[in-house]
Structure formats: C-alpha cells, structure tokens
Design a protein that fits this description.
Layout: E1 4-10, E2 17-18, E3 24-33, E4 45-53, H1 54-63, E5 69-82, E6 88-101, E7 116-118
Parallel strand pairs: 4-6
Antiparallel strand pairs: 1-3, 1-5, 2-3, 3-4, 5-6, 6-7
Length: 152
C-alpha cells in the first residue's frame, strides 16, 4: 500500500501551471518537522516535494500561501531522468490526493475557512485481496475442553 500523510508548512507561494493540454498542476515544497529532537539542538525539518493536479492544484493555489500549514494525503511517486550532462537523476515526490487546512482561524489571514479538497479516485483500482475467514474450516491444534474456564 502506498499512502502518505503529512502536515507541514509551505516554503513558498504555490504557482498554478498548466500542461500543453490545459491540465492544471502545481509543484511545491512543505517543511515537515521531525518528531525527535536531540537535547540542546533545534528541531529539524524535512523538505518534501508535493505535486497536485486539476482541482486539487487550483484549490491549493487559491487558498494556500507561504507559511500556511497544510495536511497532505497522497502517494509517493519515484522516477528518473537524464540531465543535460548525461547524468541519471532520481526523483521522489508525493502526489497529493487530498489536502486540508491545518491553521486555526486566528493563525492566518486566509480567512480561516475549514475547507478541504479530495482528488477523485482513479478510474481503475486494484481489487483488494480476499480476507481469510477463520470462522469455519480446520482449527489446527486448537481445542476447547471446558467453557467454564473462559473469562467472558
């Protein structure tokens, strides 16, 4: 399962772009605090690249700005390309499926609306594996001899 949940702050204002075929998209970075802090040191953060498409991208660009806290639920995507010097480069980014505000009404000048936007589910989804049933069939070496010993 490829599922990522992050809460962080935008490092810059998001900028809406469009593909040649007119599909809205945005790439931005959020700073996500690490949970562990060494004694006597400042809290560290990881800077994570996020990509959003279509209405999710439009929502982000309309309601979020640098410094705003954002919750992102999505999936990790990896890729590679060859740069202009012929060196193979690898990429890792989170593709956002759902985003939400994390600021309280008083934390931001954004009006404090409690809105969120979820990207529509992909057209194809894998069928989940069947869950085995243990209510019937072979019980192996399990044997109950006396119901009175049960605590329920």
């Amino acid at each position: 399962m490829n599922n990522v949940s992050l809460i962080g702050r935008l490092t810059a204002d998001p900028e809406l772009r469009h593909t040649q075929s007119g599909i809205a998209n945005v790439r931005f970075t959020i700073a996500v605090d690490r949970t562990f802090v060494k004694a006597g040191e400042e809290r560290q953060a990881d800077f994570i690249s996020i990509v959003a498409w279509r209405q999710t991208a439009e929502f982000i660009c309309k309601y979020f700005s640098k410094g705003r806290r954002i919750a992102v639920i999505g999936e990790i995507r990896t890729g590679s390309y060859v740069d202009k010097d012929g060196v193979k480069r690898y990429t890792t980014e989170v593709w956002a499926n759902n985003v939400e505000f994390c600021d309280s009404k008083n934390d931001s000048s954004g009006g404090g609306e409690q809105r969120s936007y979820s990207q529509a589910a992909p057209r194809h989804q894998e069928t989940p594996a069947p869950v085995p049933s243990y209510s019937s069939g072979d019980t192996g070496d399990f044997e109950m001899t006396n119901d009175e010993d049960l605590p329920f």
